[in-house]
Amino acid sequence: MSERVQEVGTQGPGEASARLRGSFLGFVAHEVRNPLSTALWSAELLARLPAEERSGPRGEKLAGMCLRALKRLRILVEDHFLAERLDASGLPIRCDAVPVREVIGASQAKVESAGLSIEVEEGFTIFTDGGLFERAIDGLIAVAGRGDVPVHLHAAREGDSVVVRVRGCPPEPGALDLPHKGTASDPTGRGLALHMVQRVARALGGSLSTSPHEYLLSLPLSSGNDPGASG
Question: Given CA atoms 59, 63, 64, 66 in this order, what sign does their dihedral have?
Fold first, then answer.
């Protein structure tokens, strides 16, 4: 058991919760600071270059650094605030018939991955919030594909649920623990991806878990009251 967990265990529930929250926000602040500093530094250097050098190799290098840092920052901020809004019940859940294969295909087109193979029954539809479902799939593919590891995604009915299994880079021990100050930084900006996916799963009435080799996203076939949701 870590010293952090032991320390929390000796405190009252309110104080322990506040300390965990503070440590989590410390991690978020660190993750935001790194790409923001890089973006500002590279933009300032680019602005100081003579006009004729800005379109040259040095200018292109600085512009690329700035854009990559801003992209990392955008992903991090989007994951963080989506999780925060879901925690605060500040985001309406809009359920509709969602074709699973199409959502996963849309994620495949957006997320950078060395290779993604998909196993999904043709015509498989669930009744859920398609936007949130897609965000969860995006996050899982990005995390499983770290280090340019090929990703395999399998989605199928299991009872009254759909279970999405994502295999690639194996989950680390404690992968679903709340990130805290001292948690390793993620240079891709997905340091909050699993935190976000857990919040999405919970909002849709499901859960996120891990096995030694894969991530498992389980959602009800119907997150609303549509009688034909599992068509």
Answer: positive
Strand order in the sheet with 214-220: 116-120, 151-158, 161-167, 214-220, 207-210
pTM above 0.90, yes or no: no
CA–CA separation, 121 and 100 (whole Å): 9
Using CA atoms, how far apart are residues 117 and 8, in angstroms rounded to an integer? 42
- List domains and CATH numbers for the chain: 3-87 (1.10.287.130), 96-220 (3.30.565.10)
CA count, 13 A, side-chain hemisphere, 9: 6
Pull the structure tokens for residue 107.
Answer: 């994620």
pLDDT score for 104: 87
Neighbours of 57 (CB within 10 A): 8
pLDDT tens digits for range 138-153: 999 999 998 889 999 9
pLDDT in tens, 163-184: 999 999 999 999 999 999 888 8
